[in-house]
Design brief:
8-stranded mixed beta sheet; 8 helices; 6-stranded mixed beta sheet; alpha/beta
Length: about 350
């Protein structure tokens, strides 16, 4: 990331706790120093969010050089004070495939690629983190810890899976949590008090309690959700209901992925909601859409002052996202604005 900021990651809030109690606890993230703001450089904080990331098929070869895996889009991510994506794969070479159709796994160098792209935290609360069972999940969080990459939304038990990662940027404390709403194997994969797994939206009391607890620790709470229906550009009722629960619990920003195409955004009271950022670094060319982008949210201290989608398109050759320009950028912006119509979200925050 841009090293002109100060990130203090609390050891007690790192979600990359090992999936077995005997494993070594994660080390604290390094502290970054930033110059104090001046009248010519106000204390705005920029957050960047993007969608689903895979390293399989056409994108697997990108890990041959992790430093360049994301290509030119890295400059957009690195320019933000905090950037986040959904890492939709088990990071393991072990485990047994679960009873499902699609299975994804990647080597530990996936975290090197994510870090090199300027990404600060990843969600692993999705329908692929346990593709290779709890052995694969243990490896996934162990590899994140070894790489110094915070990974939220899964862990050794429910306490770990629902625990936020908390950072401080120029005096503003930001808490980040992640949840999965995809129904496939959800009850078998959910984290419990005695079992490793994923933070699930359907464990609603636990999810609400986690957001409320995070709100007591931070003035900005980000909730990243894997939800929606593949190929449907409108959020389902289950997603809209959960967004409302998160807003009431104190979330500042709710952002999501999973549908393989862009969904709309807007305001639910004073909470900004983005229902779907689509694919981002994507493994194959037969998804619903190659339109994507980076959601950029600007904070004035803890208040959202601006939101915008930076349009991008996924390269059919490499699977990398590349910034769109000209007519493509204009088209994506126009179509993205039209997506709000079915979200039941407002164009402006409540006064």
């Amino acid at each position: 990331m841009n090293w002109a900021r100060c990130v203090v990651a609390l050891a007690t809030t790192l979600i990359v706790a090992a999936c077995e109690p005997a494993r070594t606890p994660p080390a604290a993230a390094p502290t970054r120093s930033a110059p104090p703001p001046s009248p010519s450089h106000p204390a705005d904080i920029t957050l960047a969010f993007a969608g689903d990331v895979h390293f399989a098929d056409r994108t697997a070869d990108l890990l041959g050089d992790p430093a360049t895996a994301f290509g030119s889009i890295s400059s957009t991510l690195s320019a933000a004070d905090l950037a986040m994506v959904n890492l939709e794969t088990a990071v393991t070479t072990r485990g047994t495939p679960e009873p499902k159709e699609f299975h994804f796994r990647a080597p530990a160098s996936a975290y090197d690629a994510v870090k090199a792209a300027g990404i600060d935290v990843v969600s692993i609360a999705n329908n692929h983190a346990l593709d290779y069972g709890r052995t694969g999940l243990a490896d996934t969080v162990d590899a994140a810890r070894a790489a110094g990459m915070p990974a939220v939304g899964a862990g050794a038990d429910a306490a770990a899976a629902y625990r936020p990662w908390i950072t401080e940027i120029r005096g503003t404390r930001i808490a980040v949590l992640a949840f999965n709403q995809v129904s496939e194997l959800w009850s078998e994969w959910r984290a419990t008090d005695a079992r490793a797994g994923i933070a699930m939206t359907r464990d609603l009391p636990r999810a609400v309690a986690a957001v409320r607890a995070a709100r007591r620790q931070a003035s900005v709470v980000v909730v990243y959700v894997h939800w929606g229906i593949e190929g449907d550009a409108c959020p389902p009722a289950e997603a809209r209901t959960f967004a409302g629960e998160m807003a009431e619990a104190g979330a500042t920003i709710v952002v999501g992925t999973h549908a393989h195409l862009l969904l709309g955004d807007g305001w639910l009271g004073k909470t900004f909601v983005q229902y779907g950022l689509g694919n981002f670094l994507w493994w194959r060319d037969d998804a619903y859409s190659n339109d994507t982008g980076v959601l950029r949210v600007t904070l004035d201290n803890s208040a959202i002052s601006k939101t915008e989608l930076v349009p991008a398109m996924i390269s059919r050759r490499t699977g990398r996202p590349e910034l769109a320009s000209g007519e493509d950028a204009a088209r994506i912006r126009r179509e993205y604005a039209d997506l709000r119509a079915c979200t039941e979200l407002a164009a402006r925050p409540a006064s």
